[in-house]
Every structure is written in structure tokens, then in C-alpha cells.
Amino acid sequence: MSTPDPTTRDRILETARRLFHEQGFHATGISTILREADVHSGSLYHFFPSKDALLIGVLELYIQLLRPAVMDHAEQAATDPIERVFALLNLYRSGLEHLDFKMGCPIGNLALEVADDQPEARRLIDQNFRNWAAVVRSWLDEASDRFSPEADREQIALFVLTVMEGAMMQARAARSLVPFDASVTQLRAYFDALSFAARTNAHAHTPPASHTPEI
Amino acid sequence: MSTPDPTTRDRILETARRLFHEQGFHATGISTILREADVHSGSLYHFFPSKDALLIGVLELYIQLLRPAVMDHAEQAATDPIERVFALLNLYRSGLEHLDFKMGCPIGNLALEVADDQPEARRLIDQNFRNWAAVVRSWLDEASDRFSPEADREQIALFVLTVMEGAMMQARAARSLVPFDASVTQLRAYFDALSFAARTNAHAHTPPASHTPEI
Fold this sequence. Notes:
2 copies of one chain form a homodimer. Helices cover 73% and strands 0% of the residues of chain A. The longest helix of chain A has 27 residues, at 51-77. By secondary structure, chain A is mainly alpha-helical.
């Protein structure tokens, strides 16, 4: 018997990636992957000795796809670095509309479905998140003149990812863009407030003692 | 044969609730629920004719648990309405620590795992989210004097839920409180900016035209 063709591996991986996104990891049967990738089980197990190994391959694929499939589109949609943040969020909004609120963020789904029991998958999910936030951080750094020196751009980048994931989740449950748009509008208001604070040197983060909450 | 005892139903439901949270919906087998609830399949199917029916029962149970298991604790932890928002987020933070970053928000998990294919479950997940946000909204309304008239407290309540869910997700993947704390710190900064804007009547949300981003 000959070794399976390298393109077979790509086909298995792409099929598994799509099915995990469409159906979830646990709900996707190996038999469905075999059928939809049009491969025999020997080919699959040649490349991926287990379903968990396939998951690792899919998560590594997502790391490779971050730039071409996500971030490059945001950078093409806007030149201003802050607007790139909102162009990125708008890509996910378009995805919700295009897919009728199904599927959502593939990494977010896997984060909640498989992270607890599979340390290597969890590490790669975290790596996907870190890489995503690092690109956002690079945009924020380009716009550093629009933030006060005390604004923590690393935290803000993590916050943007938090808002994207939480907003996607609510929009999917509601089958509505209302919670997504509400969240992005509030994030925009926060960015405006940060920018305002940078311009006016107002101490927006330090409420006067008379207004300190009572507890 | 006698009708199964009503407390059997509660035991099945509580066991399913715990297992769905610990393992996920698809990864939990009916046989595990039967074993851990110590019931026979006849009893289970008497109350819940399918695993999907059990999921509906669990989601209805979470609606009942929102006040006693979550919101009452936040209200006991703080008297100031804005501080109740952050006490609520701190409850989830404590849960991450206590459970070693496993399990996360049970509703958020189900939102991403099952919402697409199960309309009734999706509706109940959304109802759980709406009820959660409605309590936060009621706290924001109590503190209405600390928001500008143009601040949209309904949107802000949805934003708080977005931040909680996104922050929990990142923390679980990272097995670290860093992204959770970063997100809550940024949300706090936003609340402070909203409060500052209300006090100073500054037009924090409307950057001058000269600083409008270039695209």
C-alpha cells in the first residue's frame, strides 16, 4: 500500500475544521468526517491517530488562518488602526448575519466545549486567543497617541477579544444582532472616552472622593 | 408499578444539571446520568422522554436558580448598585478560582454547544441571558444619577453580560485570571468614564471633528 497523498491530510483537516465548527467537537462523528472528506479510516488514522489528534491539527490550522482569513480582511477594510478594531468586530457581525446566527467563533466554541479535559487543545485555543489579541494590540500601539499614558493597551486588547466573544455568544442565543450591536456601541463609547481622556488630560479614571461608592 | 416519586425528578434534574456543566451536553451520556442519579431508565424517561427534554428541564431550573444562586449573593455582597455589578463579576471570578478554571458559566457553555439545532433550548438560553441582564439593568437604573441621560442603560446591561462571558472564556483557555481581571478593570474604567461624563457634562462620547478617524 502506498502512503496517503499529502493533500489527503489537508482534505481531512479542512473537513474536520468545518464539521467541528458546524456541529461542535463531540457531536461530530469520525464516520461523518470520513464520508464528507471522502477518505477511508486508514488514511485518517495514518495522519491523525485519534479524534483528539485531529482537534490539535484543526487548532494548529486556525493559528495559520488567523492572518489570511481574519486579520488581513480587517486591515483591508480600514487604514486607521482604531477603525481596524471595529472593522474586525464587523467581520464577525457579518458572519452572524451570513450564517443566520449559527456557528459563531470556532475558537470560542472549542474553548467552552473541550478546554477542561484536553491540555494540549486548551493550550492551542489559548494560543489562538493570544495571537488574535496581539494583532489588536499592534493596532492599538499604532494609535498610541490616542490613548493616555496610563491606558493599558495590553488589557484593552484582551478586552476587545472579551467583547467580541461575549457579544457573539449573546447574539447567537438571541438570534439577533441587538446584543452584538449594543456591546460594540458600548465598546466604541469606551474608546471615545479613552481618546477624550488622552486629549483633555482629564482624570476620567479617578472619580472624586465625594462620589466614591459607599461600600 | 407505582409512579416514580416527585423527588426522583429533582434528583435526575440536579444530576443532569451538574453533569452538563462538568462535561458538556453532548459528552454526557444518559447512562452516566442514570448511574449518578441512582435511577432506572424507566424513571428518567417517565419524566424526560429524551435527552433534549432533560436539557429543557435543566435550562428551566437555571431560570429558577438565577436569583437564589447568583443575584442574591451579589446583592448581599454590596449595597451600592454599581458595586453590585462588580460583586456579581467577582462571584464568577471566585468560581474560576474555586474550580481551577474548569466548567465556567453553564449557560454560556450551552449557548455555544447546543443553540443552533435546538430552538426551544436556544429560547431558554436566551431567556436566562435576558433575566441576568435585566437584574443588572435594575441595578443600573437604581444608580441612574451616575449616568448621563444619553447613556443607554439597557445596552450597558447587555455589555456587562458580554464582558462576563467573554472574560470567563478567555480565563478558562488561559487557565489564568489575567484576561478576566484585565476585562473587569477595563469595564470599571468605562463605568468610571460614564460616571465622570455624567458629573462634568463633558461630551465624552463625541470626539471633536479634528480627531475623527480618517476613514
